[in-house]
Amino acid sequence: MTSRQSLEQHQLERLNALLELVTAEGNPFQRGRVPRQVASLEEFRTTVGFTEKQDLVDDREAHPPFGSNLTFPLDAYSRFCQTSGTTGRSLAWADTAESWQAMLDCWKRVHQAAGLTSPSERLFFAFSYGPFLGFWTAFEAAIQLGFLSIPGGGMRSEARLQMMQRFDVTALCCTPTYALRLGNLARSLGLAFPHLKALMVAGEPGGSLPEVRQRLTDLWGAQVRVFDHHGLTETGPVSHEDFDCPGRLLVMEEAFLAEVLDPETGREVDEGETGELILTTLHRTACPLFRYRTGDLVRKQLTPQLALDGGILGRIDDMVLVRGVNVYPGAVERIVRRIPEIEEYRVIQTTRDEMVELRLEVESEGNGELVSALEDALWDQFQLRIPVSSVAPGTLPEQEFKAKRWLKE
User: Which domains does the chain have, with CATH numbers?
Assistant: First the structure.
């Protein structure tokens, strides 16, 4: 039996155990959606329909506040989190201790894949600790691995950098945008971090974009490895960077049954093709999802483990059609990040007479040549005239969590 066959056998066993549990316990949301058992993964894929984000929204409205996707009585649930609300209203989630631990086990693999294995590791978490899932699971998993875990909530950027230096941290956890912000500030303050070896970034596509990775390396030093990973509140941690192949994410398939499908036809795409990532959670039994449409656009690769070449390329619902051209936010960011003089930027999207138009604001010192160079680069990429204007440094909002750089007027 090949390693791929062994993995799929494990997935089938876990899937059937979950189906049996869900149907036996009478999970109201899943009632009628899933069978009690399947003979094969193919049978599961062809007989079980998709779960859409809107299904979860409608269920929360019908059964507030947690919805009806609860395998056990609510008294068995002890952990709370909610989505960030970047694509709509925040959704509350409840977990049992067992399901929470399943997510921590995935996060441990993320830390270890990043090369964080020594008990002497010191991790700094540059987040404002709210109800978002990722911060808490990342932090608690680090504690279980025995790492000194330093919370950086409720602090200004300069104070965070001073704490990082004071406690000689070995890894920083934050979004790519905030890592850029901190790196620029550290440089201006003349601060050094001699034992920092990893920037663990997530929450935005930038962690897998070569242009963003290079900017981060230039700011923090060649000895600091940029390590991308990704997950969702609805599923927990899903993938981590392939240490030997930067910019490629490996799906933790022991914990997830993953598909990459053409969003229009629903067929499985071939290797090298782009499609939507579909996930079934195999260990988060308290609030399971079957064939969940994540909305994440990925390029399928088999290593033989399922890999996402280039990381998360963008979100299907983020694509903007401008005069017949598909424009994704990640593609714009790649172009902007090629110009190191630009610290921050914003895209303004307007619609006039049913026509979508884009323009950019960039933080720079009023450099006309820089503005022209960016307009030329945007034209070369999209064959679109996208006006660019410069604003003074510090004008645009400081981004700490998931960056919101696209403004609709």
Answer: 1-316 (3.40.50.12780), 319-408 (3.30.300.30)
